Amino acid sequence: MASYLHKTIFIALILAITIPISSARYRIKSKTSNDVVQQLRDLCSETDSVGIADCTISLAMQKAEVFSDELNKWYKDTNDVRWKEKYRLCSKNYIEVDRNLKMARRSLDSDDYRIISDQVDDAREELDKCKCKFGPGLFEPGHVVDRNNELRFYLIFARAATGRLSWL
């Protein structure tokens, strides 16, 4: 009973803090944030901090893989040299996002909790580098900025969940 209560309070705290901040700061659409919340409810059945961190990192890894595949597809499909180069460079950033998340997963698996938050933060920095390649207000067929913001939302959850691990 106490474990269930602990889990519920922890997830509620994460959601209460990150959703309003993320929505306001990154202009995440409410449908997107509702989708993330539902996925967390469906997939994160773990009751401890390590399980929740593992779940959130897994969700971020899955989302990053999907977006990386899309970037590669857009790169192959476009004939516009300008977009082709932007997609190529952004794809390199996503390789680093994937690498950082895999390192976070390895650290989690080896109980080395001290650096996991830094690895998640490094993944977010790579997203920012990708986003800078497209600039604000630029119409882009793949909507990379929107996809980056969505992945950033997942990383915010992962960061919140892994931040608690350094206390263990």
UniProtKB/TrEMBL annotation:
Top-level lineage group: Eukaryota
Alphabetical list of Gene3D superfamilies matching this protein: Invertase/pectin methylesterase inhibitor family protein (1.20.140.40)
UniProt xrefs under InterPro entries: Invertase/methylesterase_inhib, PCW_Enzyme_Inhibitor, Pectinesterase_inhib_dom
Signal sequence, renumbered to the chain: 1-24
Sample GO molecular function, one term: enzyme inhibitor activity
Keywords: Disulfide bond, Signal
SUPFAM superfamilies cross-referenced by the UniProt entry: Plant invertase/pectin methylesterase inhibitor (SSF101148)
The family this protein is said to belong to: Belongs to the PMEI family.
Identification of the protein by name: Pectinesterase inhibitor domain-containing protein
Organism encoding this protein: Salvia splendens (Scarlet sage)
